[in-house]
Each structure stands twice: as structure tokens, then as C-alpha cells.
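Below: protein 1.
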Amino acid sequence: MPVSIDQPEFLHEVWALFGVGCLILLGRFVVRLRAVGIKGLQGDDFFSMLVWIFYAMDASTVHLIYFLGTNVEAGVAAEKGPLSDKDIRDYELGSKLQLIAWYSYTALLWSLKGTMLCFFSRLTIGTWHNTFVKTASWLCALAYIAVFLTITFGCFPTHDNWQVLPDPGAKCTFKLQNFIVTTVLNVMTDGMIFCIPLPLLWTLQVPLKKKLVIGLLLSSGAFVIAAAIIRVVLTTSANPSSVSINSWGVRETIVGILTVNIPILRPIASREFWSRKTSKLPSSHGGAGASHGTGTKPSNITGSYELASSIDKGNRFGRKRQDSDSNGSQESIIGNMKTGGGSDPNAVTVQTTYQVSSDQEVGGDSWHHGRGGLTQTSVLGGKAPKL
């Protein structure tokens, strides 16, 4: 069985980075489930699941390709001597896996974009920024279709992707067209996503130091852009091999996974997150599950929900954010109730078992999506009468 290049440290790096990536993704889901519960998971959580699947697929195919080789190495090996039938079968199988790796690698990158776009979509609901997010989402979808078609038809007929003898040519072995199209569209779409949080920072009502920290977290796409550019430059300038092609791809993906999930992992560093007294935490990313209180004091976890609350206050159009699409923090929910106006401000209706407290009379749409207000009261069980 041919080995593409004798670099066992390459496999050590692949699986070490894979372990780090899995820990990051696991930490993300721990935070989200702790914050909103399984019923409160949103679109960005779905994309994160896809990231995990494609990440595992990518690492597995890269591992096998290392031992099998591809038609990139087959051309060099054929110059040194005739290839056996077994060598040809191995190179063909490795080349097929390399094609699968291209699909999983690009799908992983665009799933990361989907994670960020779903995140920003919730942060900007009810503001003019949301139109920009929706436009960016459509452009990212079109960009992925272009990348998918390039991988599929860049080398045609399809079986030339794994042809060993005769040599099918560079566009079916090294596949430079895949690098160019993927990198250009990847950088362009990342740059577009990178611009989304910049205007939102102007509406933040926080000290400058904290504003800079939040801006760094939300604008982490700059690191992904840098990793993508470094990958294509170093890969195309090195001697063609499956190791050189895949090594920088593995490093680029771990950078993307880390930077995209940093805002979600921030609550882990807070004491409130690990407190057993807090059964539901404000969502650091959004979700309806966090809107159901349990009678404990609202946790002071300064995650990305803090940004959404400030955006509500600075919304120049005065449009009310809907509680079903809010960031899920208790601060946002109370703020939304204050903005509405109800026809019966003295009515109190509690439909399920919650402990609810409020210091002032409010009206409008309640957090149970009903009409009525909430006066200073405490409900510990059963149903309260309508006053």
C-alpha cells in the first residue's frame, strides 16, 4: 500500500486538531443546552451539527488518503517505475476520497458561515441590519452552489478525477481551479459576514473597552480570511502532494471552528454558568427556551445577548422585536413587555407553573404570547385567577 509522503507527524497533527475542534463544538452545545434547553436550539445550532459531521468526515478521509495516495503522487511514482495493479487501485481509491474531501471541506466552511448568519439574523431582528443579513445569506448560498459546481465539473468526465494511467492532467489531479474558486468566494463571503457586526457596534451602550472586546469576538471572521489566504498561497507554492493539499486545509478549518464559536464559549468562564442554583441561563446566542424563568435571580452572564439588548435600545426606527425571535435573555424579554400597550393593563393570567416577579406594571404582549399585563406578584404553582 503506497504512502503519499512519509510524514507521520502529519497524522498526529490532524487528529490532535480534530480533538481540539470536537472539544470546542462540545463546549458550544453544553452552553447552548444549559442556556435554552434542547427545545430552544436554533438554526445556528443545526449548522454547528453539520460542521461536526463534515469535520469528522474530513479528518477520516484525510487519514485514509495519507496511506493510499492519490493520482497526484501516482504521476511521480510512475516516472520511477511501473505501477502494480494494487498500487493503481490504491491510488484510484485515494483519489476518490480526495474528491469527497473537497466536498466535505467546502461544506464545512459554508456551514460555519451558516452558523454566523443565523446568529446575526437573531441579533438584528427588527432592525434594518436584518435585510443585510438576509442578502448575505442568499449570496453565500449562491457562492456555495458555484463552488459545488466547480468541484463537480472542473474535471470532466467525472471518472478522470481518479484516473491514474494515463495521467489525466493537472486540472484532474492537483485541481487548481478548486483552490481558486473556493478561496475567492470564501474570502469574499467571509468579508461580507465580517462587515455585518461593524455598524451594530455604534448602537452599543457599553464602555469603549467592552465595545472593543465584543467587536473582536463578533468580527473574528478576519482570522478565517487570513487562514484561507495563507492556505492557498502555501499549498500552491509547495510541491504538489496530498499532504501539502490537506495539511493547510485542516489548519484552516480549526481556525474557523475556533473563531466562530468563541462568542458562544464565553459564558463558560463565568461563575454563574457553573452554579447549580441556576437551572436556566440567559441564552448567549438566543432561543425561546431561556424565556421561561425558574424563580432564580437572572444570571449576569455577559455573553452576546448583551449586544442584542443594546441594539433594541438603539433601534432608530423604534420597531419592537418580537419575543419569539428575541435573543432569549431575561433583560430582553422584560424590555419587550415595556414597549407594548395592552387594552387591559390590570389583567394577570398565568397559564403554567412559574415564579414571576416584576417591580412595575407593564402592558402589551406577555411572555406567554397573550394579552394583558403583569403587576408585582409571585406565582409558585397552579393557575392564578384573572384579576
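Below: protein 2.
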Amino acid sequence: MMLLSVKETEKMDDIDAMFSDLLGEMNTLSQSLMPSADRTEVDSALQTERTFSIGFTDLNESLKELEDHDLDALMADLASRSTTSECSLPTYQQAGSCADNEMAASALPPPSNSVESSGGLQTSEPQTKSDKFKLALEKLKEAKVRKLIVKVLMSDGSSKILMVDERQTVREVLDMLFEKTHCDCSIDWSLCETNPELQIERGFEDHEHVVEPLSSWTRLSENKMYFVSRPQKYVMFTNPQVFYMWKKKKECSSKINEQAKQLLLQEHFGGSTLIVPDLEGTLYLKEDGKKVWKPRYFVLRASGIYYVPKGKTKSSSDLVCFVHFEKFNIYNTKHFKLKYRAPTDFCFMLKHPCIQNESDYIKFLCCDDEHTLLLWVNSIRIAKYGTTLYENYQAAMKRAHPSASHKGPPPSIESSNSRPRK
């Protein structure tokens, strides 16, 4: 097999980046090429699809599964949105913009029914669930905020039905589940997505908006969302020595006391920029389209993962970018030793969230052991999310221990916009 030169390899990396950008622009481009009449029809169809269900066969089924108080909350929210739209109509008309008038009109219910609908919501409090369901179904089709009715599976096989919209973060949904399940508010609780076809799973980060990753699922997807306890969710903060003293013997890092851990956190997370673990080592890379894995020496940087080409050194000038983190998420895998003949079952995957099936644009990496997998997966999370990850941890600790003042980096830590550095 002919080996690619460094320049050719860099071109391939550029192609991967171009493909990632292309995923986000395809929909915009296709709509811009449509005639305006066709585009109006498509927009109307998309509007009816803005609210759908996850874990159900259709929207009707998911609405019927909502608990009474959740359905009441949905009705109240939709009613307030309808009232807001009615009040804002004169403003749109005064502006004289044709596009704005169309937007306002679409936000309102038909004129002949608007008063009746509003009155019905205010006066018919003893409505049956069937009546509420029918009215909610109509109002959802008019809603301007994307809403999902989601079935969240529990570890004991039961499930909870939630209504979430595009403004809600994972942290907020976790709080909803704490109230519904009456479980403890441990920092380990997570929302996770699973993809049976690819045999992967990923824990959502607490700052993510839940609707965004779920909207990447295909309509007939068998993906599922779980509410589970993941003890390694914030291991980089509860045991920072594992990641920032990984070159030392395990005996040394395991004996570190709590005060030393706090000093490590202050050193690496307390400044204006976050310091990424200086992780490097040999991983096995799966060749595209083949069940063949070859060892390469990889190096973690704040911007992505790099590898050392054959015959080159580990100096920065020789490193070649393997993947940038902006367009990729990291996923844990299951049974890849059997499925792809991986050297071990300690593998992880890097892919664009919109890719839901087998693709040549997916990156597969395999580690020698579980500890190495722990180091790479969580160090990549640190590099990708920066100080936002630490802020998530602080919020989780505050929720778990509201009366305790958590020790950590001084208040000078900057916002999540600060960039990680190496």
C-alpha cells in the first residue's frame, strides 16, 4: 500500500473538515434554490415537524402518555405563546414588512377560532384529558419553539415521559427527573443517548440543549435516551491527579490528599485559560472501510488530536492533525472487538453528530486497557469543552450539596468563552 505524504494527509484532513461544514449548509443551500412558492410549502411542512416525539411511534401516542400536570403545563405554555403573538400583531403590521406579517399570521390561530380557543383555555378548567389532548395537538402545530416529548428510560426498565423545548439544557432536564424520580441529586446522574446500529453511547454534557442532539436522530431511529448514574462523569475534577500526573506511577497518584487535589484544580482550571492534560501514546486506528487496525502515536492538544507520521519525531513541526474537536463528538463503544475485530474492547469513536449510520467519515480508535480509555475519553472532553465543563461540575455540586460551599478555583475563573491551552 502506498503511503501518503504529510501534505497529502493534511489535504485529507481538510476534506474531513469540509465535509463537516457541508453537513450544516446542505439544508440552507437546498432551500435557497427552491422557488418561493415551493419553499413556503416546505416551511409549512417543517413547522408541523418542529414538535415530535422521541421514543414513540407518533406525536399522538406521546401526548397521551404525558402525565396530567405535564399536559396542563404544556397547555399553559402554549396559551401564553398564543396571547403573546396576538399582542404583537399590531407591531408587525406597523412595520409594513411582508415577511413579518406572514410570520405573525403563522404564529396566530385562525381568526374565527382564536377567541374561542383563548376562552376555552381560561374557562374550561375541568377539561377531560381527551379535550386537553386535542387542543394541545392543535396548539403544538402552531408553536414557534421546537418541543420534544421524550421517553427517558431508567436503569430498572421503567420510563418517564418529559416535554422539553429547545431552550432547556441537560442540567434543567436532570432537575426535572430528580423531581419525578425522587432520587438523590448526585453529580453522577447523566442523560445518555445510545445508537444500537453503531453500538455507541454518549453522555450529554450538562450545558448542552437537549433538543439539539436529539434532533439529529432520524425519524425511524432506534436510538434511546437513558437516565443513568455514571461515576466517571466528573472524574477529572474528583481525581484530577489521574489526568495531570498520569506519567507518574499509580501508587504515587493514588496517595494524593484532598488538599493536593484542590491545588491541581486551581493550577489547571483556575486561570483565564484551561490547561489540557499533556496526554500522548500509541492507539490503534481503524482503516477506512476495513477491519484492520494499525498502531499510531497520538498527541492531545487543545485544538484536537495529532499523530506522528512514520519516520518523524514528536516535535510540533512534525505533528499532523488527525481531527479537530469543533465538529466532532466523542462516543463510547460496545463490543467492537467482535464487530470490527478491534485489538481490545476499549474503543472510542469520533464523529459528527449528524452522522447516524455507518460512514467513512467516522474515526475509530482503540486503547490497550480500560485505564488508557478513561484517560483519552475524559481528556478529550476537557480539551473540547474547556472551562464550561468545570462550570457544569460546580453547578452539579451545588445541586447535590446546596448547603455546602464547594472548594475550588478562585472566583477569577473566566467564563466558558475562555479557550483551553496546552
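The two ends are 35 Å apart (CA to CA).
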